[in-house]
Structures are given as C-alpha cells and as structure tokens.
Amino acid sequence: MLQQPKNRLPGLIRTDRTFTTPTIINYDVHKLVLHNENFRQAKQTDEYILFFQHGSTLFYPYSMEFRYIENNVLFLIVEYQINSFSMLQRVLNSSYEKEERFVVNIQALVYHTDEPPKFCHPLPLFVIEPEHKTELYEWTQANTKTS
Amino acid sequence: MLPTTSTVDPRHLAYMSDCEFMQVLFSSADYFPGLYRYTLGTLPFPHDNLNHQQLFTAFMHQQHYQKQWKHQQWFAHQDEVHYRTMKARQSRNQERDDAPLAEDLDNRAYRRYVSPSLYALTVMDIVNPVQELMCGFTYMMMGSHIHFEQDAFYVGYDNLMHTWAIEVKVPFFDTCEYIETIMTSKDIAKLFLHSRVIAHLLFEDGPMGTVCTSLEALAEWHEFSSPVFAAPLGYHPPLPIRYAKLLGVSDVTATKE
Q: Does B228 fall in a domain?
C-alpha cells in the first residue's frame, strides 16, 4: 500500500469534508501556530498576517489570499491601493468591529527567506511600519539547528 | 465542529510544492470562507445586468455601425451597486464606526472601477450547475478563474489572451482526486461555476469603450442568458483572484440616447 506523503501544512490543507478557517495566533522561529475554527465562531484576539521578504522585496503568499481568515489582503493592497500596514490594520479592524463586534490585535509577521518564496505576489509599494511587525529569519533557524 | 490548533513550519509555506499549493487552493472553497468574499447567492446585482446575448448585440453594433458607448453607460449598474454598498446610509460600508475610513474606502472602491482603461468581461453560467470538472474547461471558484489542462491548471486564467497569474503543475487527474476527498458532487456544483473571459472592454483616449473579442469567442458560450461581469485588468503581475468583487455591467444596447 502506498503511503500518503505527510501533510506539512495542517490547518491549511483539508483532509476531509469539514471546513474551518485558519488564523495565525502565535509563532516562534520554527513554527507558526494556526487556529482553525468556523469563521463565524472565530474570536481570536491576537492575529498575525504573514508576509515573506527576500532581499528587500516584500511578498504576500497567494495561499493566504485564498485560505486565510483575512482573505482579501492582496485585494486591499493592490486594488484598493492600501500602501501601509497601519492602514490595512485599520480597515480590517473596522470590518471586524462592524461585522463581528469584536476587536482583534492584528500584527504583521515578516519571514525573511534565503530563496525567493514560491507562489507569492511582490509588493513593491507596501510598507510595514516597525511598530507593527515581527521579523523572523530562515537563516536564524538554520543557525539554531546547527548550533 | 471543534476548533483545532496546529503548527506549520514557515519554510514549508515559503517553498510549498505545486501539489501542496493545489491542496491549499482548493481547501479554500467554502460557502462563507472569511470576511469579504460574497457567496454567489448574495451577489448584489440588478436582475437586468448585461447578459451574453446583449454583449453579442453590442459587439455587432460596434462592428457594423461603429456604435460605441461611454464608460458611464457601461458601468451605470456598477454606479447603483456602488451607491448601495458604499454610500447609502444603511450600506455595509456606512455601518462602520470610523466615518473618515468609510469615506476613504468609498473613494477607493469608486477609483477601482472608474480608473482602469482595460477590463475583462467574464460570463458566468448561473443556471446549469457543474456536474463534474473537465479538462480543457475554465471555472469560477472563489472569485478566481481556474482553467484545467492535462498536466497543469492555471489560476487567474484569461481565455482570450491565454495568460494566467499562477501555473500549478499538477496533473488533472490528481487534482480531481484531491477535490473529491474534500468536496461532495453537491459542493462542486455550488462552489464551481462554468465561466470564462469572453471579451475585453478597452477605453483608449477618451470615454468611449471598445469591445475587444471575436465571433468565435462569443460563439463558444451557449447559454445566452448568462450574466456578464467586469474586472479591472492591468495589474502587474496579474492577480489570481479578480472576481471577488465583481463589477456590474449595463446592457448598453438598451441605453436611450
């Protein structure tokens, strides 16, 4: 019997007919912690939006635009020309307050990659203010592993 | 269903394989996946939105009588939609506590449909449900055109220009096999629509629009009553999801001069 490859992206890749929506609620250098729940029941007070950075170029993963609870980040950045994270945060929070009546602390998680990330959209004009972002480094992870 | 927590290595997200990307993408299909995407049943469009037959008539008038219509005429329905969703006192946008933000978003949404000089016109079959996914066909799923070929599928596909935003090299058979593990045939019928880009609408040097298509392209679609919607084109690189917020298009052939 052939063995199925291990699901390296649990929470993002469904394995049955149950649908839940993922939210990144925590992190460390090795991992992102995802919380999956029915969208209408999701009441996480802290949430992270993941970006990649390679060199000086910032990227947004297409996978998140399709799958993440905030499934319109790229739409807002490109089509509504929202060029800063603080503005993005204001829009998303206003929507949460309007639709769901709760407040979420949304922060940016910027993961610096050694190689250009795959399936991503470059964001040459988008700025993430230092007070809103946490930066993680792939090379740090490699160093940590070898140290 | 119970909430679950899991962990993911960010490297696996940064360098996901084509097969993983395929699985994440189709995992996103749901009736109400997040904050913003309209479900197909709640599209706020006037019932007399432009349809395929009327687009054909408009194209014939353009080809034979050099008839053209202004941007304002093409997007009169979108003006209504915009008013209802962004400006009206009871609109979802005006329900925001942050009034300056509501006004700002109103302006951004307006610029989104007024500023572009090029739009994709896409036709959607809302009458005949998808029975099964077929190779060589294009479908609308979660605001994105997905075109299947034997060895790959193309996200954000434009049938006229044969361009796409993302190429995913997974064989059609494997993709279908995965979709069947997470969706019933009833889900497929509701979450996928037969759809394709059928024309482009170009505004070059002025307010008059040119319909760019061919009789062959129009004839490839057989459901004459299917509505036609628009999406702005011209972003580089192209966006995979172009129809999350559809633009309504008016039947210009019924316009009174």
A: yes
CA distance B33 to B142: 9
Partners of B4 in beta bridges:
A36
d(CA B118, CA B103): 26
pLDDT tens digits, residue range B28-53? Answer: 988 765 444 554 545 556 677 899 99
Q: Which helix (H) or strand (E) holds A142?
A: helix A138-146
pLDDT for residue A76 is more than 60: yes
Query: In this predicted complex, what is the ipTM?
Result: 0.92
Q: Which domain holds residue B196?
A: 46-70+119-249
CA–CA dist B72, B193 (Å, integer): 29
Which residues 57-116 of A have a C-beta within 8 angstroms of B? 61-63, 65-72, 74-75, 78-82, 90-92, 94-99, 111, 113, 115
A6 touches chain B (CB under 8 A): no
Does B215 reside within a domain?
Answer: yes
**Residue A31 maps to a domain:** no
Residue B131's φ and ψ, nearest 5 degrees, are: -85, -45
Q: B74-100, pLDDT tens digit by residue? A: 999 899 888 888 887 777 777 787 889
Pairing status of strand B144-148 against strand B138-141: antiparallel
Residue A101 vs residues A58, B97, B158, B164: alpha-carbon distances, Å: 32, 11, 39, 38
Tally of domains within chain B? 1
Question: Domain for residue A24, yes or no?
Answer: no
Task: Quick: pLDDT tens for B189-226.
Answer: 888 999 999 999 999 989 999 999 999 999 999 989 89
A115/B14 Cα distance (integer angstroms)? 9
The DSSP result for B19-51, as a single string, is HHHHHHHHHT--SS-SSSPPPGGG----TT--B
**Mean pLDDT over residues A122-133, rounded?**
97
To probe the interface with A, which of B19, B35, B190 has the most A CB atoms within 10 Å? B35
A140 touches chain B (CB under 8 A): no
Q: Are B199 and B147 in contact (CB under 8 A)?
A: no
Q: Is residue A70 part of a domain?
A: yes
Give CA separation, B160 vs A51, B153, B164, B199, in Å: 32, 16, 11, 7
Range of the domain at A100: 48-146
Query: How many Å apart are CA B187 and CA B26, to the nearest integer?
Result: 12
